[in-house]
Amino acid sequence: MATTTVHLLRHGEVHNPERVLYGRLDGYRLSEAGQEMARMVAKSLVDERHDVVAVIASPLQRAQETAAPVAAAFGLEIGADERLIEAGNQFEGTTVGSNPRQLLDPRRWKLLWNPWRPSWGEPYREQAERMRAAVDDARAAHAGHEVVLVSHQLPIWVTRRSYEGSRLAHDPRRRQCTLASLTSLRFEGDRFAGLTYSEPAGSLAQTLSKGAWSVK
After folding, report:
1. CA distance 75 to 96
2. pLDDT band at residue 211, thresholds of 50, 70 and 90?
3. Which spans of this chain does the record mark as coiled coil (predicted)?
4. b/e string for 65-87 if b means 16 or more Cβ within 10 A?
5. Fewer Cβ atoms within 10 Å of its own Cβ: the N or the C terminal residue of the chain?
């Protein structure tokens, strides 16, 4: 029975000095630190002798740029899969994340009636279903090897919870899916056999949180 691993890689840090909730908007590239994070992930996968035979990414620029060093390290082309895209969000293009007082505007209340779905964006269940379909296709196409799928925090997190049998509704502050992290799903044949979580760029992420990295 073939053992196959599908790594869900979150993209690196994005250049976003205005702190916009960019969602699926075009034009959001990796920052200098984000580029370094992607290189750190690639080096880790090579140094640990992972058997990566395919690299597939969300079509968004930040995901494609994160995939580039990984694909180059293994001599692969980057594939694109729309199913790996960021979650849809009706607050896209705003700065509510950095200024939540904007949610006090009564015109926004119609989007906040059900945080468990969530009512302001793509339902968690739909995210998990499309992500799992992408995982299944990658697993079937590359059985017995390893595949890297580059996606975004929320789709990766709800996919993990789906495989673990947890409720998809959750506290966003408790997500274990930092920048450039790997959520690695292991399969024995068609059966999900477990997962591991790692942070190849964790040292840089911690430096960023302390404000010690200059992003151009």
Report:
1. 41
2. low
3. none
4. bbbbbbbebbebebbebebbbbb
5. C
Task: Give the whole-angstrom CA distance, residue 57 versus residue 64.
Answer: 6
Q: What is the DSSP track for 65-115?
A: HHHHHHHHHTT-PEEE-GGGSPPPBTTTTS-TTT-GGGGGSGGGGGG-S-T
**pTM of this prediction?**
0.93
| Residue 113 β-bridge partners | none
Separation in Å, CA 144 to CA 46, 47, 79: 18, 20, 19
Can you tell me whether residue 137 is helix, strand or coil?
helix
Question: Under CATH, to which class is 3-209 assigned?
Answer: alpha beta
Amino acid at 5: T
Under DSSP, the state recorded for 167 is -
Burial class of residue 16 (count of CB atoms within 10 Å of its CB; 0-12, 13-18, 19+): middle
To 5 degrees, how large is the angle CA 37–CA 73–CA 147?
A: 85
Q: Strands 191-198 and 182-188: what pairing? A: antiparallel
Looking at per-residue confidence, does 2 or 215 come out higher?
Answer: 2
